[in-house]
Amino acid sequence: MHLHILGICGTFMGGLALLAREAGYTVSGSDQGIYPPMSAMLAEQAVDLREGYHAEHLEGPPAPDQVIVGNALSRGNPAVEHALDKGMSYTSGPQWLGEHLLQGRWVLAVAGTHGKTTTASLLAWILEYAGLEPGFLVGGVPANFGRSARLGGGPFFVIEADEYDSAFFDKRSKFVHFRPRTLVINNIEFDHADIFPDLAAIQRQFHHLVRTVPGQGLIIANQDQASVAETLDQGCWTPVLGLGTGVDSDWRYRVNDSGDLLLRGPDGAEHCARLPLPGLHNAANCAAALLAARHAGVPLATGLAALEGFRGVKRRLELRGEAGGVRVYDDFAHHPTAIRATLEAMRPGPGRLLAVLEPRSNTMRMGLHRDQLRTALAPADAVFALQGTGLDWRVADALHGMEPAATVADSVEGLVQEIREKARAGDRVVVMSNGAFGGIHTRLLAALAPQEVSS
Description:
Keywords: ATP-binding, Cell cycle, Cell division, Cell shape, Cell wall biogenesis/degradation, Ligase, Magnesium, Nucleotide-binding, Peptidoglycan synthesis
Number of helices: 15
Catalytic activity: UDP-N-acetyl-alpha-D-muramate + L-alanyl-gamma-D-glutamyl-meso-2,6-diaminopimelate + ATP = UDP-N-acetyl-alpha-D-muramoyl-L-alanyl-gamma-D-glutamyl-meso-2,6-diaminopimelate + ADP + phosphate + H(+)
Family: Belongs to the MurCDEF family. Mpl subfamily.
Protein name: UDP-N-acetylmuramate--L-alanyl-gamma-D-glutamyl-meso-2,6-diaminoheptandioate ligase
Largest sheet: 10 strands, mixed
Cofactor: Mg(2+)
């Protein structure tokens, strides 16, 4: 069977293409921007990539048996219009995945506003360490696997369960198609303001997800957050295991002075493991992954041992390099809660902490989080931000009053120059964006490198 994927270079759709090829399907695809690393991964799997959304891409030869439409495409797109006019069979990526690759498998889904990629990657690694050969599809590249998706050899499949909509013709969240037996709800906050009017609308979608979990399954839920409790209070037919920092949590986690994860169960016993990633938010991610793996039959002791070998995920506090004594990290944080959690995790350590932010997400572009930015960035010793195109609000105004004063530039080149002039040996620079940020990491490392003096 021949599938043609529209929007194939997106993280989810690219992962879907890899899974479909592994399952024996012929796969081709179109996208507006075809570039590494996704293009290289797809080419290695003999996926026929075509630039742009031209109608002729769907005409063959041979014409595809089914078109899978990415959620970035809408009516008016030439490929979409051609598929509709010709009466071609089409579906969304999440629906195709649920119907063709997840049926009959034990799906472990990780949902929430923050921490999905890290938690799902941790969970897949714990299952792998336990010898269970899980399949997975995550929104990043776990270093332990070197790829974002694989079918796996056992019954278990780990998926990052995104609340974004499925397609222009299916405005339900992607995760309603996955039918998990094990569900992790990390947290629920307001985001994706381009499709959700308020937090209640997001909670409604999460409740649709809760409705799909069988009575013999398990929901691992953040017990610290009222929005999660409110969602479950709308109706829940599945056992819930609470996870939090409070003394009354079913399972309580904390981080000791040595940076170790301490996890206490209902029996009062406390379990300890070295955190593979810093910060209380990563302690929560690890704890959720451990409990989800435990539901799949992995003893807690095995899961704790697996954490020692977890090598992280690209773009999640990833060290990109060091130049001139300055370390440059890359992180996907783009919501105020995630920005602050990232900086607090990096706060302990030598030298100054410099935060570099690109306000790029749809919600950030709309300015709905601008009033929270000063608090989110407060743990940093210095703040640098980009006044990018598409913002109808001034970043400098949102950051006004910070001490020391935040530096705002209207170009990546200008931002690199500002950081180069103010950074000094021993500093740690954390770059935060949900996009490529104009390749700022490489440009910054080049600018910070000692310049050779010609004789």
